[in-house]
Amino acid sequence: MSDQVVTRFAPSPTGFLHIGGARTALFNWLYARGRGGKFLLRIEDTDRERSTPQATAAILQGMEWLGLDHDGDVISQFEGADRHAEVANQLLAQGKAYKCFSTQEEISAFREQARAEGKSTLFRSPWRDADPSTYPDAPFAIRIKAPQEGRTVIQDQVQGDVSIRNDQLDDMILLRSDGTPVYMLAVVVDDHDMGVTHVIRGDDHLNNAARQMMIYEAMGWPVPVWAHIPLIHGPDGKKLSKRHGALGAQEYQAMGYPAAGMRNYLTRLGWSHGDDEFFTDEQALEWFDLDGIGKSPARFDLKKLENLCGQHIAVSDDAALRQELEVYLAAAGLTPLTQTQSSDLERAMYCLKDRARTFPELIEKAHFVLTGRPIVPDEKAAKALVNVSDGILEELTPQLQNVSWSRNTLEEALNAFAEAKGVKFGKLAGPMRAALAGRTVTPSVFDMMLVLGKEETLARLSDAAN
Ligand code: GLU
């Protein structure tokens, strides 16, 4: 095997991309991409009844939104069924697995008796060491010959050494009597064939690892590095559920969280690098490792997510942000921007992006540049116009006619005007916000004036004055 790191994300396509799944995908992506390795995607669609193409599409879309690009084709586990069966037959041929003719009734009877006698109900097949000459002409399953003594130790990078007594493992079925492979076999064969070196997944799969190791060992395949990560809990410390709010990655996209903020937040959710909270993708790729994954479940904290998203919006490139915002509008089913709005928005972006935590907040702040005359004030802005502005805007407008349009001169002019009127600048700013934006939460008055330009500014001010 080469030294190249190969990780994979292996979702079951039975629903949207869960926030926990998104984090698993992200950890695998970071681990591989940060080491020049490969990140593969396998859809575990062997459960034909519960797997749907819509779910696969939703998972792919969620990953695309989060920027988690994978190498090569999307692999379907179901399509590998023949290969999985081949491995079961190989183990059979090598005497590491055996044909088991026990029927469902016999297995149930065995369990019932064991229960009655107070013994372990782990099924022990009478066919494990049977002479092939005694085989009936009947359907059979292929079972692995599990070790019955000693212990299996999972050397987990997060959980430490997890040791399981082998007498607690049964001779698990590899191939059912109808010829279909079991999930546990499919996972191992696929991970091996895909060259997966590191399996990073939820710790709900830790028990599976012991059984999967039996197959690796029977085949003489190298066992991957295991890293079972604790699940995500809600703020109340209970397993994350609908009760705690949105669960799907796409819901967060539709709520207008930027992908970079989401990635930062999900990376921090259960992994740490000193005290760093805010970091870029480049830093995450450089820093991410398995040592930094915590042993106890991380708690989902919306405030923290919003805070990080705000910081990412603030440092984003204007054009990129405008583009991402347009993708958001489409994803949320909102009206797309016109070409003019789009370029105006980008021009204004510099004064919009600090202190907006989500795209809806950014759009609210951008209202002054996305809207046109006549400016219709919202309720609060209307109050600001009625109470304070009487006369002020009327007087102000002509005084701005001859001012050259730069931040310095505008500041000087407005401060001088306020002084002459004997009011604080704040008293002036309220009605001006209302007149220019029809809102009370806006960028600074100067920024709005500069973005709108002289003509439009004066027009809006005199509209409001009249
Ligand atoms: N398909 C499994 C799941 O969605 C993941 C299996 C694995 O990562 O080995 O939980």
Salient structural properties:
single chain; 466 residues; Rossmann fold; Arc Repressor Mutant, subunit A; 3 domains; three-stranded parallel beta sheet; three-stranded antiparallel beta sheet; 12 strands; elongated; binds glutamic acid
Description:
This protein is mainly alpha-helical and 466 residues long. It has three domains: 80-229, HUPs (Rossmann fold); 243-365, 3-Layer(aba) Sandwich (Rossmann fold), CATH 3.40.50.620; 379-465, Orthogonal Bundle (Arc Repressor Mutant, subunit A). It has helices spanning 19-33, 53-65, 81-93, 104-116, 183-193, 206-219, 249-254, 259-268, 281-287, 302-315, 318-331, 339-348, 359-365, 367-370, 379-388, 392-400, 407-421, 425-437, 445-452, 454-465; strands at residues 6-9, 38-43, 75-76, 97-100, 141-144, 151-156, 160-165, 173-175, 198-202, 225-229, 232-233, 298-299. The protein has a three-stranded parallel beta sheet with strand order 1-2-3. A three-stranded antiparallel beta sheet has the order 4-5-8. Strand 6 (151-156) and strand 7 (160-165) form a beta hairpin. The chain starts with 5 loop residues before the first strand and ends with a helix. The model has no long low-confidence stretch (mean pLDDT 95). The structure holds glutamic acid (GLU).
